[in-house]
Task: inverse folding
């Protein structure tokens, strides 16, 4: 099982981390990945000034925004799946 962690810290919440959770749930469903990838909440990842905090299998993604999140997660998942 692979893991996507999404920061639930206050800075990320303001930037839309709850919306990101919904986008990722849809992405996993559309790609039939729900049995292979789990979503988890996590504390601040030190990305507050740069973007949304997201890790894929422990690897921190850089510069994540609501608009590029799916693309970046997709690339990261392709490396591990
Ligand atoms: S609050 Fe999300 S990275 Fe800091």
Result:
């Amino acid at each position: 099982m692979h893991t996507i962690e999404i920061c639930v810290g206050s800075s990320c919440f303001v930037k839309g981390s709850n919306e990101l959770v919904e986008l990722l749930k849809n992405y996993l469903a559309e790609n039939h990945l729900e049995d292979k990838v789990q979503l988890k909440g996590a504390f601040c990842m030190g990305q507050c000034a740069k973007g949304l905090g997201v890790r894929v299998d422990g690897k921190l993604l850089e510069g994540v925004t609501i608009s590029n999140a799916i693309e970046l997660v997709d690339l990261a998942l392709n490396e591990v799946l």
